[in-house]
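Hi team,

Filling in the usual template for the complex we talked about on Friday. All components are listed, including any nucleic acid strands or ligand strings, so the model treats them as one assembly.

SUBMITTER: L.P.
PURPOSE: interface mapping
COMPONENTS: two
RESIDUES: 569
SEQUENCES:
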Amino acid sequence: MISKKEVKHIAKLARLGLTEKELDKMQKELSSILDYMKKLKKVNVSKVEPTSHSVQLENVMREDEVKNIDPQAKKKSLKQASEIKDNYLKVKSIL
Amino acid sequence: MELTELTISQAHEGLKKKKFSALELCRAYLDKIEKEDKEIRAFLTVTKNLALSQAKKVDEMIAAGREIYFLAGIPMAAKDLILVQDVRCTAGSKILENYMAPYDATCIKRLKEQGAVILGKTNMDEFAMGSSTERSGFFPTRNPHDLTRVPGGSSGGSAAGVAANMCCYALGSDTCGSIRQPASFCGVVGLKPTYGAVSRYGLIAMACSLDQIGTFTKTVEDARIVFNIISGKDDLDSTSIKIDKIKHPKPKIGNITIGVPKEYFAEGIDSRVEEIIKSAIKKYESWGAKIKEISLPYSTDYALAAYYILMPSEVSANLARYDGIKYGHFTKKAKDLIDFYLKSRREGFGEEPRRRIMLGTYALSAGYYDAYYLRCQKIRTLIKRDFDRAFKEVDILMTPVAPTPAFKLGEKLIDPLSMYLADIYMGAVNLAGLPAISLPVGKIGNLPVGLQIIGQAFKEHEILSIAQIFEKAC
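RESULT (copied from the run log):
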């Protein structure tokens, strides 16, 4: 069973501000899901290479250059932000 | 026959021969939505004005005597995680409740170039996380065949929309069965293409190494028509691959060996589903196919367990972008930046995304990476090998799509694991990146049952032509 302390730590890493009640519920649910995952330990994976993608991928390179952006599109995108100042995203103070 | 019952090919013929106009066709669907969607609730957004203006353009082309493309004037819908420029795109989540798509997804761009008519955006489990569409941040969708039951998920709105004739075809996405399972529950054709066959540019990501855009249609032929348009290389998705368009195939059933993996008929399957699937396979045998029982030891239980480590790991990374700053829901009561993140994400995400973000963060966190994530990537290799071995002996595989027909609303909501197990026959195909189709082959009472046909990578044409044999004969 995953401990409450661990659940709290994970929630902080994941930037989810869960309430105490939600943390309790999460602890139970994660524990039951991770129990199900125990069967994965039965598989012998020694000498098996990992697969990250099903298809063989190659890196695709391109120049890193600024392309012309439709000013209307730019305006619309900025409008979706929580706060804007002088065409920059504004965030709350860190310290 | 009502206009909304037509297949793509029939509607295209009708438009060309001027039996009806694109505007009439479009209005027939909009009326249908207005009447029926109060109960079914397949749509999150209906784009009436966009649809009417697109239909008008097609009529002008026809009036001017110009050739029209196959999909011109044909009304469709897209799952609400596929971007349509200047239309709200929620991914079924409150965190994106007011998000306006700044550009078109590549598949939408290709459909618009054809003259497609976009009726709206369909309901889904939040961020495609679920198997019933009950986990939508807005409201559940109901199964048109039985309103007390779920349409399946996560693309439940798209499946229900096509089944209830509220759109001629629809797009969805499949990460672990999210096209095939709702297609099975709603009795329509659901195609999940090979990973890389359809560009994912403009698809809101759940798990990038597994997500794939595909189609819901009334017939196999319609699936081929839409797939031909949306598939192929796209510079904006580096995992997309150039593929040849499918021509009209002539399937030769006599040369085909069908593999039937025994693990897909083990405990947990509803005996009535088993009977329908086995009798469908028998039909193929009677038409001359060779049937061979095979074994895919890693592709059910182990695949699902590995999936529920790999997917949340990718989810925890993909959903990190929803921080309330650039777009989407943000809290109004934060003290400082960290508090802003914690509250915005807690308020915006529903239960299932939270659970998966937590699971993925745990699996990737220090000390657990090797035991969970890396181990599952190795199991992914074993699953791939299972299929490679099978395809040396057989041409295609046939299995059930889901162990049961559509279940009741609420039935699997309390225990998250029971919902995950609804996808037991689905995950291996995504982990191996293979194409698969869900084909309606029978019913239990009112409830449709789908046969899953799995093909080799980039051989969509094979599964489509094999599916078509059944469709034409039955």
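MY TAKE: Strands of chain A lie at 84-85, 88-89. The longest strand of chain A covers residues 84-85.

Thanks, L.
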